[in-house]
Amino acid sequence: MKIYCYSKCSTCKKALAWLDERGIKYELLDIKEQHPGEEELRRFHGKSGLPLKKFFNTSGMIYREMELSKKLPTMSEDEQYALLATDGMLVKRPLVVGDDFVLTGFREKEWEEKLG
After folding, report:
1. How far apart, in whole angstroms, are the C-alpha atoms of residue 7 and residue 30?
2. Closest listed residue to residue 72, CA positions, set 81, 19, 99
3. pTM for this one?
4. For the segment 52-94, what is each residue's pLDDT rounded down to a tens digit?
5. How far apart are the first and last CA of the chain?
6. Interacting residues of 95 by C-beta distance below 8 A, sequence separation 6+
């Protein structure tokens, strides 16, 4: 299982502590330095069962600066994938990628169901 995180993100720190407390093994990737590319994002989205907008870090500075809340509704999925692939800070984190699932963000109940 891979987990994309940002070291200064408090939610990521909580998520990693949650995994460590349960002895769950993972490969840690820095979302800023090793962010997923467009093809990876397409695969992750397909596995997740989530709407593509759930992959955007809506509370991030770049998202707000680019006024994406106004732009996303008129963008095609291809344009959204391309945009997400440009900067890991646009991607919702933590991003957990397992063999048959993908989780965005840290919601303990959801993580317990998938990982517990």
Report:
1. 7
2. 81
3. 0.93
4. 999 999 999 999 999 999 999 999 999 999 999 999 999 999 9
5. 14
6. 3, 4, 31, 36, 44, 55, 102, 103, 104
